[in-house]
């Protein structure tokens, strides 16, 4: 009993003396693990009888089918590589702990240093098993351990990587990536404003974990959430909700909508019309999902190209293919055109025929007030501008050249457009001139306006002016015009413009796409060479545009108007001068 107690005391004493390993200790340990596997394999081969073959039993190589299922050294190598790929660090723990214990060393206390040691051990075992598999087949070649003292990568170099980079949170690495993209000009102002929100969405789903801890399963989980996430997440009834809660709420609403007889849907005690509730269950568009995955996955590609991230991109090949995107969009209802009767109802409403006051646009009255509310639908209908494109027009962007008036859309330091093809010129339709766009421009300039429409002067977080206007127009068309169809919104006026242009041009789609601000050819073959149409080229196209409605009651000589209102408080724009070569 006393001897056993003394033995236990000795073991406890030895354990108490275990110390933190140095880098040299760990280099030696990895090399010993490597050599042990090769030594055991060679000892097994030496012990076999002369003429030994693993495939022949009692002279019949097919006698025991179970032999084919017996794991080989090559199988072992594959198993250890798989464990390494999936970061199964626990598999290497017993081997590493045994070697440390033999040397009276303890497992590294630092979490990052301990994990990298276990990964290196997995790689070491896999490499040794691969060499051993070759020796089983009689192939002997010079041996180079992946780590350690015989020419492999020293632990010290990797340990620095762990401490300086591997434990950085994803948010910190993404910020460095975003800063680099902006600095190099790879991202437009619009992308620089939007992309951080995509990274934040990833963090809200997965957490702000260390960058190198992001695994394939995290990327797959993120994609799964994106595919179920409502389009309005973060807004309206989803404000302040976590992504998972947004999905759950959308699913609950969808369950109620499944009852086709229900015309009112109750959400948290508030009742919504069915048409409004249907907007709440619309999920993210496949194109938006692809763009989000590309942005978040891009940071891994960037770090890999810089030599700072050695692993495979966990977002690799997660995006839907073009065919998959088209398939998912099949059956999806797109924006509707504004039919003639809808347009007549819109332009016969108080904003265009007379309202009660500036604050009461919905009520009939004696005042026609010229501002963004009045002009934007007309500009979208006759020039095809997006709401934000129209709201960011400057007074000097209505220009004249060779007797042709046109809108001049170009990027400068204060604004950027959706795509590079959005920079364009669009001749001003004669109907807009008859309604008084040139008189409005002169009045805005005389009033000291910089932008043409300054009554909607507040940008949202993404740098857009159009959010507030889109909300106003949506409420107005529903409550006053009686057009509550969610597919017939402001942007549908642009759809109407596009449709009528295509019909009138009888197939000259390249010119129409240029006017719309799209790529000239769908395959982009000429875009690198063609530098755009001039106003005189596009004027005949615009002149062909005719709608089967009369807007004569809006002509400037038929109405008395208030124009324009007080400029919105703004920051100085600076001296920006747009010069055309032939002016």
Describe this structure as you would to a colleague:
The chain is mostly helical and 583 residues long. The chain folds into three domains: 17-166, no CATH class; 170-329, no CATH class; 340-562, hpI Integrase, Chain A. The chain contains 23 helices and seven strands. It has helices spanning 2-16, 23-47, 73-85, 93-102, 111-136, 155-166, 170-184, 189-206, 216-228, 243-257, 274-280, 286-305, 322-329, 340-347, 350-353, 372-383, 387-391, 430-435, 437-446, 466-481, 491-505, 509-516, 535-543; strands at 264-267, 270-273, 368-369, 398-401, 404-409, 424-427, 561-562. A three-stranded antiparallel β-sheet has the order 4-5-6. Strands 1-2 form a two-stranded antiparallel sheet. A two-stranded parallel sheet has the order 3-7. Helix 3 (73-85) packs antiparallel against helix 5 (111-136). The radius of gyration is 35 Å and the shape is elongated. Residues 8-12, 57-71, 150-163, 522-526 and 568-583 have low confidence and may be disordered.
Which of globular, elongated, flat, extended, rod-shaped describes the shape?
elongated
Number of strands: 7
Order of strands, main sheet, comes to 4-5-6
As for the number of domains, it is: 3
**Biggest sheet, open or closed, and with what strands and sense?**
3 strands, antiparallel
Order of H and E elements: HHHHHHHHHHEEHHHHHEHHEEEHHHHHHE
**Structural class, judged by helices and strands?**
mainly alpha
Q: Termini, distance in Å?
A: 108 Å
Uncertain ranges: 8-12, 57-71, 150-163, 522-526, 568-583
Which percent range fits the helix content? 40-55%
Strand content: under 5%
The number of helices is: 23
Kindly state the mean pLDDT as a whole number? Answer: 80
Protein name: Tyrosine-type recombinase/integrase
InterPro entries: DNA_brk_join_enz (IPR011010), Integrase-like_cat_sf (IPR013762), Tyrosine_recombinase_XerCD (IPR050090)
Keywords: DNA integration, DNA recombination, DNA-binding
GO molecular function: DNA binding
